[in-house]
Design brief:
The chain is an alpha+beta fold and 160 residues long. The protein has helices at residues 4-19, 78-95, 97-101, and strands spanning 22-25, 37-48, 54-55, 60-75, 106-110, 114-115, 118-119, 124-141. It has a single domain (4-140), classed as STM4215-like (2-Layer Sandwich), CATH 3.30.2000. Strands 1, 2, 3, 4, 5, 6, 7 and 8 form an eight-stranded mixed sheet that branches. The longest helix is centred in the middle third of the chain and has 18 residues, at 78-95.
Protein backbone atom coordinates (compact mmCIF):
# COMPACT_ATOMS: atom_id res chain seq x y z
CA UNK A 1 0.00 0.00 0.00
CA UNK A 2 1.29 3.46 -0.82
CA UNK A 3 2.22 5.75 2.05
CA UNK A 4 -0.17 8.55 1.13
CA UNK A 5 0.74 10.80 4.06
CA UNK A 6 4.43 10.58 3.18
CA UNK A 7 3.78 11.33 -0.50
CA UNK A 8 1.57 14.34 0.34
CA UNK A 9 4.01 15.68 2.91
CA UNK A 10 7.02 15.41 0.58
CA UNK A 11 5.33 17.06 -2.41
CA UNK A 12 3.60 19.84 -0.44
CA UNK A 13 6.71 20.65 1.61
CA UNK A 14 8.98 20.81 -1.44
CA UNK A 15 6.51 23.03 -3.34
CA UNK A 16 6.06 25.32 -0.30
CA UNK A 17 9.83 25.75 0.06
CA UNK A 18 10.16 26.61 -3.65
CA UNK A 19 7.18 28.97 -3.98
CA UNK A 20 7.27 30.51 -0.52
CA UNK A 21 3.47 30.34 -0.18
CA UNK A 22 1.20 28.13 1.88
CA UNK A 23 0.13 24.85 0.26
CA UNK A 24 -3.27 23.46 1.30
CA UNK A 25 -5.42 20.51 0.37
CA UNK A 26 -8.50 21.49 -1.64
CA UNK A 27 -11.98 20.31 -0.77
CA UNK A 28 -11.68 21.08 2.91
CA UNK A 29 -13.89 23.06 5.26
CA UNK A 30 -10.96 24.93 6.82
CA UNK A 31 -10.79 28.67 6.09
CA UNK A 32 -8.57 29.70 3.19
CA UNK A 33 -5.22 31.27 4.04
CA UNK A 34 -4.22 34.76 2.92
CA UNK A 35 -3.49 35.22 -0.80
CA UNK A 36 -1.42 34.02 -2.52
CA UNK A 37 -1.51 30.29 -1.83
CA UNK A 38 -1.52 27.00 -3.69
CA UNK A 39 -3.98 24.16 -3.30
CA UNK A 40 -3.94 20.59 -4.51
CA UNK A 41 -6.53 17.93 -5.19
CA UNK A 42 -5.57 14.32 -5.70
CA UNK A 43 -7.62 13.59 -8.83
CA UNK A 44 -6.51 10.00 -9.23
CA UNK A 45 -5.44 8.33 -5.99
CA UNK A 46 -3.75 5.25 -7.43
CA UNK A 47 -3.30 3.55 -10.76
CA UNK A 48 -1.04 0.55 -10.97
CA UNK A 49 0.81 0.51 -14.27
CA UNK A 50 0.54 -2.35 -16.71
CA UNK A 51 2.73 -5.28 -15.93
CA UNK A 52 3.13 -7.62 -13.03
CA UNK A 53 4.08 -7.29 -9.41
CA UNK A 54 7.73 -7.98 -8.66
CA UNK A 55 8.88 -9.99 -5.65
CA UNK A 56 11.76 -8.40 -3.74
CA UNK A 57 14.17 -9.89 -1.22
CA UNK A 58 12.84 -7.65 1.57
CA UNK A 59 9.51 -9.55 1.57
CA UNK A 60 7.67 -6.82 -0.37
CA UNK A 61 5.93 -7.06 -3.71
CA UNK A 62 6.08 -3.90 -5.83
CA UNK A 63 4.59 -2.52 -9.02
CA UNK A 64 4.98 0.85 -10.72
CA UNK A 65 2.06 3.12 -9.93
CA UNK A 66 0.93 6.66 -10.61
CA UNK A 67 -1.12 9.39 -8.99
CA UNK A 68 -2.52 12.58 -10.55
CA UNK A 69 -2.66 15.87 -8.66
CA UNK A 70 -4.39 19.06 -9.72
CA UNK A 71 -2.37 22.10 -8.59
CA UNK A 72 -4.11 25.49 -8.38
CA UNK A 73 -2.52 28.85 -7.56
CA UNK A 74 -4.89 31.38 -6.02
CA UNK A 75 -3.93 35.06 -5.72
CA UNK A 76 -5.32 38.56 -5.22
CA UNK A 77 -4.89 39.43 -8.89
CA UNK A 78 -4.43 37.74 -12.23
CA UNK A 79 -0.76 38.71 -12.72
CA UNK A 80 0.28 37.25 -9.35
CA UNK A 81 -1.67 34.05 -10.01
CA UNK A 82 -0.07 33.61 -13.43
CA UNK A 83 3.47 34.34 -12.18
CA UNK A 84 3.20 31.81 -9.34
CA UNK A 85 1.59 29.23 -11.66
CA UNK A 86 4.56 29.58 -14.03
CA UNK A 87 6.98 29.18 -11.13
CA UNK A 88 5.12 26.09 -9.84
CA UNK A 89 5.05 24.67 -13.37
CA UNK A 90 8.84 25.10 -13.66
CA UNK A 91 9.24 23.38 -10.29
CA UNK A 92 7.43 20.25 -11.47
CA UNK A 93 9.03 20.29 -14.94
CA UNK A 94 12.59 20.97 -13.81
CA UNK A 95 13.76 22.32 -10.44
CA UNK A 96 11.74 20.02 -8.20
CA UNK A 97 12.36 16.78 -10.10
CA UNK A 98 15.64 15.88 -8.33
CA UNK A 99 14.19 16.88 -4.94
CA UNK A 100 11.17 14.61 -5.39
CA UNK A 101 13.25 11.83 -6.97
CA UNK A 102 15.30 11.71 -3.76
CA UNK A 103 11.98 10.89 -2.02
CA UNK A 104 11.22 8.11 -4.57
CA UNK A 105 8.62 10.24 -6.36
CA UNK A 106 9.06 10.86 -10.09
CA UNK A 107 7.24 13.54 -12.07
CA UNK A 108 5.94 11.69 -15.13
CA UNK A 109 4.09 14.52 -16.84
CA UNK A 110 2.77 18.04 -16.36
CA UNK A 111 -0.26 19.33 -18.25
CA UNK A 112 -0.67 22.81 -19.70
CA UNK A 113 -1.47 25.73 -17.38
CA UNK A 114 -5.11 26.76 -17.64
CA UNK A 115 -7.15 29.61 -16.24
CA UNK A 116 -9.38 28.54 -13.36
CA UNK A 117 -10.83 31.91 -12.32
CA UNK A 118 -14.14 31.94 -10.47
CA UNK A 119 -16.73 34.69 -10.54
CA UNK A 120 -17.70 35.46 -6.97
CA UNK A 121 -20.73 37.56 -6.03
CA UNK A 122 -18.54 40.64 -5.53
CA UNK A 123 -15.59 39.99 -7.84
CA UNK A 124 -13.22 37.40 -9.15
CA UNK A 125 -11.11 34.77 -7.50
CA UNK A 126 -7.95 34.61 -9.62
CA UNK A 127 -6.69 31.10 -10.19
CA UNK A 128 -4.41 29.26 -12.62
CA UNK A 129 -3.46 25.62 -12.50
CA UNK A 130 -2.33 22.40 -14.08
CA UNK A 131 -2.22 18.66 -13.44
CA UNK A 132 0.86 16.65 -12.48
CA UNK A 133 1.25 12.88 -12.82
CA UNK A 134 3.60 11.34 -10.26
CA UNK A 135 5.11 7.86 -10.46
CA UNK A 136 6.32 5.72 -7.59
CA UNK A 137 6.26 2.13 -6.44
CA UNK A 138 3.12 0.66 -4.91
CA UNK A 139 4.09 -2.04 -2.46
CA UNK A 140 2.47 -4.69 -0.35
CA UNK A 141 3.67 -7.52 1.84
CA UNK A 142 4.35 -10.72 -0.03
CA UNK A 143 1.61 -13.12 1.05
CA UNK A 144 3.04 -16.24 -0.57
CA UNK A 145 4.41 -18.74 1.87
CA UNK A 146 7.80 -19.94 0.78
CA UNK A 147 8.01 -23.62 1.61
CA UNK A 148 11.37 -24.41 0.12
CA UNK A 149 13.10 -25.00 -3.17
CA UNK A 150 13.28 -27.99 -5.47
CA UNK A 151 16.93 -28.93 -5.60
CA UNK A 152 16.59 -31.73 -8.14
CA UNK A 153 13.91 -32.95 -10.53
CA UNK A 154 13.72 -35.63 -13.21
CA UNK A 155 12.00 -34.46 -16.37
CA UNK A 156 10.74 -37.13 -18.74
CA UNK A 157 10.09 -36.45 -22.37
CA UNK A 158 7.20 -37.99 -24.31
CA UNK A 159 9.62 -40.01 -26.43
CA UNK A 160 11.07 -41.89 -23.50
Amino acid sequence: MIDLDNIRENIATALHEYLGVQIIRSNTTAPFPQYPFASYTIRELLRNQRGTWGEYDDGKDRISASQIWSITIQAKDSAESMALALKAYDFFCHSGCPILKDKNIVVSSVSEITNRDNMLTVGYEYKNGFDVTFSFMNETDNTLEITGYISEANILSKEA
